[in-house]
Design a protein that fits this description.
Methyltransf_Superfamily, SAM-dependent methyltransferase, Methyltransf_25, 232 residues, methyltransferase activity, SAM-dependent_MTases_sf, 9 strands, single chain
C-alpha cells in the first residue's frame, strides 16, 4: 500500500506528528536519561537481540527496526547499546527531525500496516508507544506485518499506556491537535499477538511516576515459526 493510501486514522496521526515534530523532540529530548524502567526494558531487548539462543535462527545477530521511531531518540539509544538499528515513521516531519538529530543513522518514511521490508529481514523490532493511536481494527494488521519481517526467534518490544479507555487529545506539545490515544492492557494484546504468530516472553506494568499520569506497560514477544513454537 503506498504511503499516500492510508486509513483515515493514520492520515490524522501523520498530519498531527508532522505538526508537532520539532516541539515534541525538544520536550522529550532528555526524558530517557532518568527513565530507569525504559532503560531497563530497552537493555533487555538489546541483550536478547545481541545474544540470541543458538536454537533460534542459528543464533544470528541481525538488524532491528524502530517502527514509529518519531525523532529517533530510542533509535539512537539502541544504537549506543550496540544494535544495528534504523527507524521508520509515518510522519515525514518526524523523519526530517530524526535525520537531523542522528545523521549517522538511517531513517525512512513508512507505515507499520504495510512495511516496505523483506520477509524475515529483521532480528527484532520495536513499537515504542507507536501503536497507541491505532484503532482496534488496525492492531492485527500491524502485528502481522511485524511478524512477517521478524525472523523466527526474533523479538518484538511494545510499550504503551495501560488502561481500557480511549482519550481524545485536543492539545499537546504547544499545539492544538485532534488525536485519539488508545489505552490497552497486556491481556488485550495477548490474542492479537498469538494470532499474528508471537508468544509473550516478558511483560511488566509500572505505576505512574512523577511525569506519567497513568500506568505504563512493556511487553516483549518472540516470533514463532509458522509451524509452531521455536525449539528451546
Amino acid at each position: 500500500m503506498p504511503i499516500t493510501d492510508l486509513d483515515p486514522a493514520l492520515r490524522s496521526v501523520q498530519a498531527t506528528y508532522d505538526q508537532v515534530a520539532v516541539d515534541y523532540t525538544d520536550l522529550l529530548r532528555d526524558h530517557l536519561a532518568t527513565s530507569w524502567t525504559d532503560q531497563a526494558m530497552l537493555k533487555l531487548f538489546a541483550d536478547l537481540v545481541l545474544h540470541p539462543d543458538e536454537g533460534h535462527d542459528g543464533g544470528r545477530v541481525g538488524t532491528v527496526a524502530d517502527i514509529g521511531c518519531g525523532p529517533g531518540r530510542i533509535t539512537g539509544h539502541l544504537a549506543a547499546l550496540g544494535l544495528d538499528v534504523f527507524g521508520i515513521d509515518l510522519s515525514p516531519g518526524m523523519i526530517e527531525v530524526a535525520r537531523r538529530e542522528h545523521p549517522d543513522l538511517r531513517f525512512e518514511v513508512g507505515t507499520m500496516t504495510a512495511l516496505d521490508l523483506p520477509t524475515s529481514s529483521l532480528a527484532g523490532a520495536l513499537g515504542w508507544y507507536s501503536l497507541i493511536h491505532l484503532p482496534d481494527h488496525l492492531i492485527p494488521v500491524a502485528l502481522a506485518e511485524y511478524r512477517r519481517v521478524i525472523v523466527p526467534g526474533g523479538h518484538l518490544l511494545l510499550a504503551f499506556q495501560e488502561g481500557e479507555q480511549v482519550r481524545h487529545i485536543a492539545a499537546a506539545y504547544g499545539h492544538e491537535i485532534s488525536l485519539d490515544l488508545h489505552r490497552r492492557r497486556i491481556a488485550d494484546y495477548e490474542p492479537w499477538l498469538r494470532k499474528a504468530g508471537f508468544t509473550i516472553f516478558s511483560s511488566m506494568v509500572v505505576a505512574p511516576g512523577d511525569r506519567e499520569k497513568e500506568p505504563q506497560a512493556y511487553l516483549i514477544a518472540r516470533a514463532e515459526p509458522k509451524d509452531g513454537p521455536v525449539a528451546a
